[in-house]
Predict the 3D structure of the following.
Amino acid sequence: MSRLVIVSNRVADLRKRTQTGGLAVGLADAMRCRGGLWFGWNGKIEASPPEQPHIEQFDNVQMVSLPLTREDYEQYYLGYANAVLWPLFHYRLDLTQHDRAAYAGYRRVNAMFARHLAPQLREDDIVWIHDYHLLTLAEELRRVGCRQRIGFFLHIPFPPHEILSATSEHFELINALLAHDLIGFQTKADLENFNNYLGHHFSCAGDTLYGQADAFPIGIDVEDFSRLSQSAGDDILIDRIRRGILGRSQIVGVDRLDYSKGLPERMRAFDRLLELYPEHQRTVSYLQIAPPTREEVAAYADIRVELERFAGAINGRHADFNWTPIKYIHRNVSRDKLAGIFQTSNVGLVTPLRDGMNLVAKEYVAAQDPKNPGVLVLSRFAGAAEQLEEALQVNPYDIDSVAKALHAALIMPLEERQDRHTALLARIKKQDAKWWVTTFVERLGAVQVDGKDTDCLVGAA
Ligand code: GDG
């Protein structure tokens, strides 16, 4: 079996199980189950560029990591990946901060990754690059002579070509992406956007390009998460939550504090629920866990202030001596506690404005007690909506309709909850973390590298 080499912006610490962020959670599961080499940034910032990467072995995984310089961090990570590509790919043209120096930094770090990764590679390795930070890495690897099979997976949405072309570098980026042998997206809708882009900007349509792009919806380790949620039952905190909400219902949301997650809209929908259905006053509370991320990017500081204002205003309006409508926790909670909290909550509220997949939706389903499951209220703009048809799907921009769905979830009869949960559980088990890794890696392994038709890769921006 060929060795699997995973490359992502950041390598996770496999000793801990506290990864926040879907990519780290998904890849840590994948690496644990298959073994191989994991290459990326170690999260450190140092004064000068690294001469050699740092190499460490954890069980069956070799971690090869590098620090970044302050300039690299500011231009590649903050400036381009997170202030241009992230908002752009989430349809937020209003938040993109175009900057040529940041783009130069992005290209420089991708090239630097390639220079340090190439000597680590064996001839028959399978290389799997992840996400929007590393769109141009495969092109750089090819430039320094790597002939291995190289695949790419985009964890975030692929936007329509009209949006993508709002950045001056779109053609260079997508052209570089085509250096891969296989390109994976979360959903069929993303794949369609990609093919449309190629149809508009290249001389032939994507599906005839080389037929090597497809949708591979990322999954979770369902059994592991469900086990976590059961063992959390003994936890004192979970027990307190349980007793605290006895006779009351709890709605839960868990998201990195990111503007793509629709958190202010969610708080407004909860506020509207209390207005439209006063019977939920004093009987329902909403727990939102939103650990900080990317705080050095201005848009993230803004959303934090906005949310605190919202939570305060809504609580001020409705709270009573023994009832706090919104509990807002702005820090990281351990994964086992999260699993227990999901299980004790009657409704999982997952309403991003745009999301590649959204693993929280799947984790919420995995954590439910099949005998008395809670209800998932899911944005139709999360990639997960393509699979999770039995969730109550909502338009997160339409505050009234989200409030109505919350009400429907809170009063849903047991039998309907069980039917929906059984169907959802079957879906997340069918395409779980193992399925995702195996399917992608097998497809990549089967690619006929030499026979690739590159005749029509000639495009015009
Ligand atoms: C990207 C894409 C795609 C969250 N808060 C805490 C915590 N988490 C964990 C969750 C979940 C993960 O982080 C978040 O994953 P998501 O998928 O919901 O979202 P992103 O971070 O935006 O991930 C996304 C994903 O990549 C995978 O491809 O699904 O669309 O945007 O596992 O449980 N974990 C802990 N404490 C927290 O406070 N321990």
Remarks:
- Residues 298-318 form the longest helix (21 residues).
- The longest strand covers residues 36-45.
- The radius of gyration is 22 Å.
- The CA atoms of residues 282 and 321 lie 10 Å apart.
